[in-house]
User: What shape does this take?
Amino acid sequence: MEEIKCAVYTRKSTDEGLEKEYNTLEAQRDSGENFIKSQKHQGWKLIDEHYDDGGYSGGNMNRPALQRLLNDVAKGKVNMIVVYKIDRLTRSLTDFAKMVDIFDKYKCSFVSVTQNFNTADSMGRLTLNMLLSFAQFEREISGERIRDKVAASKKKGMWMGGCVPYGYEPINRKLVVKPEEAKVIKFMFEKYLEYKSPQAVGKLLEEAGMKTFPRSSIDRMLKNTIYIGKVKHQGVLYDGQHEAIISESLFNAAQQVSTSKPKNQHACLYSNNEVGIMRGLLTCGCCHSTMTPTASQGHGVKRYYYTSVTAKMYGHHKCTNGSVPLAAMDECMIKIVSQLFQDPKVFQALVEKIAPNKTMELLRVLRTPEKVLYKMPDRQKHLLMKLVITGVTVNHDTMEINWTDLGLSLLSETLLQSTTGHQTVLPMPFVKHKGRTEIRLPENMSTEPHFDNELIKSICLGFKYQKLLDTTKLSIADLAAREDQDPTCVSRLIRLTSLSPAIIRTILKGHQPPKLYLRNLLRNPIPPIWDDQVKQFGFTVLD
Assistant: This one.
């Protein structure tokens, strides 16, 4: 006789009473086990696994024990499902149709202990559909009855449960004001009218030693009509049975401040969230939260940054790292990642993976990996970054790049020198120069020259003035008067001619150290020995 592996499934819509020593789930299971024993002569055998869903509705299939049961059916561990009543399994005809497909696919049946039918024959299926129709009808009627009761209760101003608003406590199913928390609510509304910023309110709450909230929570609380003694239902306000914490005039003034802000100030910054190729890959080293794209606008110009979630929610006083310019960070990572594609075959394979059927077209037009990366859409750049990078931690003075196994296998010798395990630690590559953020990677990592036009022009002027001094026999004072320059400036420019030829060639090719500026050369003495010049000004590679 063929063995039939049976499983008992039990369910209860609420968790009320489940703490009892003998609850309804256990009663359902006992009935199922006894039924299986009565069918022992047909080869039925109970499996050890328990499938109990306490506190889950039968209106959907989002139930952990049910999902385990269906997985075991698919694996062939269960041939027969036993339930106390059919509505314990489901109250939805749609879900039932899905289950029947699964049962038919894996040759599994189910039976109800208290309803004399099974799905093995057509009459059983007809009976089952009728019972399920009534079960679904019963569920829908119950839902309508509950919704009507909630609507009627709210029209009378009753609080119908749920999350208790801050400032109140539930006593006998009614909201009662908590004086200490009510002070916080009043403080919040008053300061919002003064500073017009939820983030500023959060900071003031912290400074005052009160409970702090994230910006999103403050936003919700400032719009909660519970605090003016009202109950909202279906967009209509009703007088509540609870005491108000603030006046309607104060509440309305706060709403006017909120609605008077420009709509684009808090609107979604990016279409389809595709701006910022490092989105989802950056972590703040200070607060250890994710850094996401944000924007600020001043003097008619919109600027984009990566900012930590903590700073966005609680204010920048919670995170000392600050924001990173979005364009600068994206460009920096392209410069670093492009070094991984020294092998054209590797680069071709990666481009084919993120931009199918466009590889040869791109390579025909552009010859260097970095230029190809610049021409890609942001979405493809983002996909490429995720192939080689698992994340980047941005600290105050360093940047930690964590590579995937693929990225680690492609690292150049230059990057390997700064890599331990899967992590490469680099000095922070962003420097402020004349009000602009510039990318200054370590000298041995530069993938393209950085021409300092001011420095190159000054060296050329130095050689010009030196040549005039040699050919015209003029003094420095006379030469300065002739060129309409300050004598001290002319003297300092002439000193640049004492730089070693190798240093001058390196500067002309744009490969000077990142922190070498003209003022360093003009204000500091230049050693007469060339090797000392290399050490003093930080040159590690000379052309």
Observations:
- Confidence is low (pLDDT under 50) at residues 264-273.
- The longest strand covers residues 4-12.
